[in-house]
Amino acid sequence: xxxxxxxxxxxxxxxxxxxxxxxxxxxxxxxxxxxxxxxxxxxxxxxxxxxxxxxxxxxxxxxxxxxxxxxxxxxxxxxxxxxxxxxxxxxxxxxxxxxxxxxxxxxxxxxxxxxxxxxxxxxxxxxxxxxxxxxxxxxxxxxxxxxxxxxxxxxxxxxxxxxxxxxxxxxxxxxxxxxxxxxxxxxxxxxxxxxxxxxxxxxxxxxxxxxxxxxxxxxxxxxxxxxxxxxxxxxxxxxxxxxxxxxxxxxxxxxxxxxxxxxxxxxxxxxxxxxxxxxxxxxxxxxxxxxxxxxxxxxxxxxxxxxxxxxxxxxxxxxxxxxxxxxxxxxxxxxxxxxxxxxxxxxxxxxxxxxxxxxxxxxxxxxxxxxxxxxxxxxxxxxxxxxxxxxxxxxxxxxxxxxxxxxxxxxxxxxxxxxxxxxxxxxxxxxxxxxxxxxxxxxxxxxxxxxxxxxxxxxxxxxxxxxxxxxxxxxxxxxxxxxxxxxxxxxxxxxxxxxxxxxxxxxxxxxxxxxxxxxxxxxx
Length: 524
Prior knowledge:
Function: Part of the Sec protein translocase complex. Interacts with the SecYEG preprotein conducting channel. SecDF uses the proton motive force (PMF) to complete protein translocation after the ATP-dependent function of SecA.
CATH topology of the largest domain: Multidrug efflux transporter AcrB transmembrane fold
Number of helices: 15
Domain Protein export membrane protein SecD/SecF C-terminal: 311-484
Domain Protein translocase subunit SecDF P1: 67-121
CATH superfamily of the largest domain: Multidrug efflux transporter AcrB transmembrane domain
Number of strands: 17
Oligomer: single chain
Keywords: Cell membrane, Membrane, Protein transport, Translocation, Transmembrane, Transmembrane helix, Transport
Radius of gyration: 34 Å
Family: Belongs to the SecD/SecF family. SecD subfamily.
Strand content: 15-25%
């Protein structure tokens, strides 16, 4: 038989809460292979900073519009790749990327231009000498860029157009004289409308390529694909948009037996031979890739190429001393505030205050486990703004307790009910208020998260998450514990619950209502 409205079986709720805690901490300690600690943001654990300097072919200053577009694309890559806690800011003509921990290589990858173009292979030769390194600074010199473009992108390197492209009269000599470089001055700055002399990423083969016939902007999706029986290597599977699908179908139909080069930032990443016409709009980039390399390549292609090419500085370490000092001060202030809340609850609510402390402690237990798991699963990092969100959320949780307890007092004072009978009725009334309050808080957090960036977004995320956990604790812990206490003769004693004064007032009101009108008047 179901219990009356408002009445519950506390054991079931508490048992379900215990199950949640057990599952969470089982995931914390027995999955992921990492430490059972949350990931900290840059301001708390320090990080690595890389400065990307914009390069233009003529050495002119990049436009503010191009820099802002590049910053937005890098932020999109950050969100898609999952490098949580990363800061991307403009500093003059530079973009500064700061990532938590020692992830300098990851920051440099975020700044990859990722300009992909599909070119027809006109000629190719194996490289017989190892790639040479240019003098320091020459790779970024505008004069070196223009010189490389004049030598390697001369219009007379090829003749004909479209499917009739062929090597020009001086092309063979130019290809033979061309040497690969470890730092290509043209990297990301080649003209897609001109032929190109370039090398593959490994520096083992050099190519004479025709103009770009299909740009990377026509890629609809890029996915890293694992080796299979008929595909022994890691690859990046590409899907073209409608226009790109038609261009690729026309090219592969007309060039069976020829090679097509997939050129990323002026380097050839793959140059397969076309075996048959490809009409479904799909293709793949293959090579001697590792799993991590194919994932990185798929991610940068998926989220778009940068409008500028960049050179990256060496990674520098960012100290967490200031952040840790601020955290320590914040924790001390938060600890003092919590202590005052606990003292007030214990003095004013007594037993109910003890239940408040227990509920807050259990809430902290869940929050910690969730932080650890979010750090593993979505690379969520806890920063100072997130800590502020949690501290504010403690007030939200305490407010839910106060709403419930005051409703209990109202039921006892106004309805003349006992502690035990007041709990189910008070809970029904308090529940609506708690749900409405937390719903407003969650919606505010969601809106703030949607429109904000950076630290403010982290604050909104932690505040919203804590609001959800507040509901779990109030419904599965606080209410059942209060219900259990109300059913115990010992725990429901007025001197323990702090409800003695309210019960006395209720009794006086009942007595006053029982006295007949005029009974206290003197006889004339």
